[in-house]
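Shift notes (night). Ran Probable disulfide formation protein while the centrifuge was going.
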Amino acid sequence: MKKTLVGSWIVTIVATLGSLSFSELFNFIPCTFCWYQRILMYPLVIILGIAVYEQNDRIYKYVLPFSVVGMLVSGYHYALQKIPALQAFETCTSGIPCSGQYINWLGFITIPFLAFIAFTMITFLMVMLKRQK
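Came back to this:
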């Protein structure tokens, strides 16, 4: 139980620090979908931090909605970047385009992909936590 909680908290910390470093250190301006992903990730640092401190193994009830919606948003955002046909339906009409790619490591790793992996890991760990009860 404790390893699952601590592991999910570490994932949120790394994802949040990565997000902040992209915008604050590398000066990447977040698009609309990036902001939605931040809105879903950043509170998890506090929520899971408190859960680790209190050893609350029932926190999955509150974390899963954030992580599952985060998976959906980041998955759509990644698809928007990688599937040209979806760009015709792009909802980011002002500011930074959501289909833009600041990074493209190995031809497939973009910022929304990293967010999708983080949200997926958190979801997986929360499902494990739920099953351990």
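The chain has one domain: 2-132. The chain has a mean pLDDT of 94.
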